[in-house]
């Protein structure tokens, strides 16, 4: 399949000038499209995708400057590069006016054919480069969508064998307990625990897939109120643990409420988990501002982690602690994905035994 050639728009009210431009550019790898007036040029700009437009300045009814202004005002045509071609005397005023109306370049007659071809070739190369980049981006998006769909399907299907596995183990423990010795009951208990862990892993994989594919719906959010609500819910799940929760009031952002809640819940549950063995557990949520950028943080006084492994924190299935702390190693990967979808970044700071701080930014838009 042949790729359509890039198009170049030639605009001049004098037919002889159009013929001259076609003669200079005729052998270049592009399709030349004529327009003999400003109105015709604007219609063609709306109809075709041009790599560059060569625009005569002195035309009746609508001169080149007006055409450029109209083109720049329309979202469909504002990105088309414009080179003014003019027979007027080159002055500082004419040059500044050309650039003010959105020209990328100005050429004064008589035109040097080599210079004109060189300039047009630059814009042809840029245009084709953008086309290739867009095609690659679309291909990557398609591949990513297919991978995400595959992960979702596989994760969903993995649930099927887990249910009977867990169910039969439960039946054996309840109905045949008297026929099993301690070792047999221990084996069945371990199988059930492994099935539950696998189920949690599948749930987390599905969550990671969902947050990657979900539409982003931004709206104003009260982060402080959201953190307070989540902390109360986590506290209700851990009634035997008293955690001092400090939340800076009045923090507002623009973001997807559902996704931001998932990210904050993961960060706060992590903090709750890793402060569980502290005599006086404390978790803080707040923000700092440096050079106009707001950075939010979740800080705890828990077991911390070795900063040498900080780069692995947000990779799926990476766990920096032993089996004494439960988890699948996907929670922080979910947080990272959500923060990046909000055009932000996240990182962690810590040292073993000195607690941990997770910091993140969110785009202001």
Q: Based on the structure given, which CATH architecture of the largest domain is correct?
A: 2-Layer Sandwich
Please describe the biggest sheet, giving its number of strands, its sense, and whether it closes into a barrel: 5 strands, parallel
Radius of gyration over C-alpha positions, nearest whole angstrom: 32 Å
Number of alpha- plus pi-helical segments: 9
Q: What is the H level of CATH, i.e. the homologous superfamily of the largest domain?
A: Histidine kinase-like ATPase, C-terminal domain
End-to-end distance, in Å? 41 Å
| Proportion of beta-strand residues | 15-25%
The number of E-state strands comes to 12
| H-E string | EHEHEHEHEHHEHEEHEEHEE
Describe the strand arrangement of the main beta sheet, using strand numbers. Answer: 2-1-3-4-5
Q: Name the helicity range.
A: 40-55%
How does the helix and strand content classify structurally?
alpha/beta
Reported by name, the CATH topology of the largest domain is: Heat Shock Protein 90
How many individual domains? 3
CATH C-level class of the largest domain: Alpha Beta
Q: What characteristic shape results from the CA principal axes? A: elongated
Low-pLDDT sequence parts: none
Mean pLDDT: 84
């Amino acid at each position: 399949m042949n790729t359509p050639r890039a198009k170049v728009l030639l605009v001049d009210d004098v037919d002889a000038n159009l013929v001259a431009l076609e003669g200079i550019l005729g052998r270049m790898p592009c399709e030349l499209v004529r327009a003999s007036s400003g109105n015709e040029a604007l219609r063609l700009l709306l109809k075709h995708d041009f790599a560059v437009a060569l625009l005569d300045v002195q035309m009746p009814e609508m001169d080149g400057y007006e055409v450029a202004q109209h083109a720049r005002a329309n979202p469909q045509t504002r990105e088309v590069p414009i080179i003014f071609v003019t027979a007027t005397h080159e002055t500082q005023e004419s040059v500044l006016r050309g650039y003010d109306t959105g020209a990328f370049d100005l050429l004064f007659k008589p035109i040097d054919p080599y210079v004109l071809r060189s300039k047009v070739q630059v814009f042809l190369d840029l245009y084709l480069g953008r086309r290739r980049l867009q095609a690659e981006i679309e291909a990557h998006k398609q591949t990513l969508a297919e991978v995400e769909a595959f992960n979702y399907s596989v994760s969903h299907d993995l649930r099927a064998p887990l249910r009977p596995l867990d169910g039969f183990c439960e039946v054996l423990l309840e109905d045949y307990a008297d026929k099993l010795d301690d070792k047999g009951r221990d084996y069945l208990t371990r199988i059930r625990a492994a099935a539950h862990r696998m189920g949690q892993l599948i749930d987390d994989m599905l969550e990671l897939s969902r947050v990657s594919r979900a539409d982003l719906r931004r709206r104003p959010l009260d982060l402080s109120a959201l953190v307070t609500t989540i902390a109360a819910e986590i506290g209700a799940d851990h009634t035997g643990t008293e955690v001092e929760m400090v939340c800076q009031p009045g923090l507002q952002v623009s973001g997807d409420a559902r996704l931001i809640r998932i990210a904050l819940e993961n960060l706060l549950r992590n903090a709750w988990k890793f402060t569980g063995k502290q005599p006086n557990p404390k978790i803080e949520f707040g923000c700092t501002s440096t050079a106009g950028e707001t950075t939010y943080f979740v800080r705890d006084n828990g077991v911390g982690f070795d900063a040498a492994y900080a780069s692995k924190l947000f990779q799926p299935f990476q766990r920096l602690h032993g089996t004494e702390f439960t988890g699948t190693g996907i929670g922080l990967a979910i947080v990272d994905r959500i923060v990046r979808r909000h055009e932000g970044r996240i990182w962690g700071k810590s040292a073993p035994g000195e607690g941990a701080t997770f910091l993140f930014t969110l785009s202001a838009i």
